[in-house]
Design brief:
Elements: H1 3-11, H2 17-23, E1 47-48, E2 66-71, H3 79-92, E3 97-102, H4 104-107, H5 114-130, E4 138-142, H6 148-157, H7 162-166, H8 169-178, H9 185-200, H10 213-230, E5 236-237
Parallel strand pairs: 2-3, 3-4
Antiparallel strand pairs: 1-5
Helix pairs in contact: 6-9, 9-10
Length: about 250
Amino acid sequence: MSRALLSHVLHRPPHFAYTCLRSGVGARGGVLASGIHPLRRLNCSAVEAVPGPTEEAPAPQARKKRVVSGVQPTGSVHLGNYLGAIKNWVALQDSYETFFFIVDLHAITLPYEAPLLSKATRSTAAIYLACGVDSSKASIFVQSHVRAHVELMWLLSSSTPIGWLNRMIQFKEKSRKAGDENVGVALLTYPVLMASDILLYQSDLVPVGEDQTQHLELTREIAERVNNLYGGRKWKKLGGRGGLLFKGLVLCP
């Protein structure tokens, strides 16, 4: 793999501008129409926007379902990453509209060294390409390069009860291992950033590991809460929570 190809992928403008605009997100990552409007129709499997009595149902648009996923920049890929995520991405990219990113913002929730993280981010992008992710079919980008991830995360945080975050098992385990003095607030709000990653692109499918079950369920709860608070009406609930989300390829519809 040439360095020129990798540089092209990392530095070109994201080619998902049209999709971002349809989702209410600026091509450079900014949220359009500042305020709560972009949050009114958060797409998660537990909620669905139902036209009101005075509204006309939107004309159906033929489009591929959208897949969003990513891994943290470790700089190397282990068998679990490949079998659990990247191998499936390669299979999905022909049939879905795919967004695969390097989740560097999640990586800084625990102590890190900036030069190593920068190097690992580039290496992870190279791994995506080497494993068969095609940049002409999938949008490949670095999470921190799209500032709307953090902007939406802040808006979602303002509506997320602290008790919901305190019950997250991964936070309890990691904070216990690292010690309170070594744990930042970002580790607590990690699941809200994950919810932002999913909801920002109005994802239809989210391939994740089973260790993320609780975080996906939290994403549903956040979407329900925001829609109820700011959507003007309660949305119809669809689907259930729990193990039914995870069968074969792990997808959150």
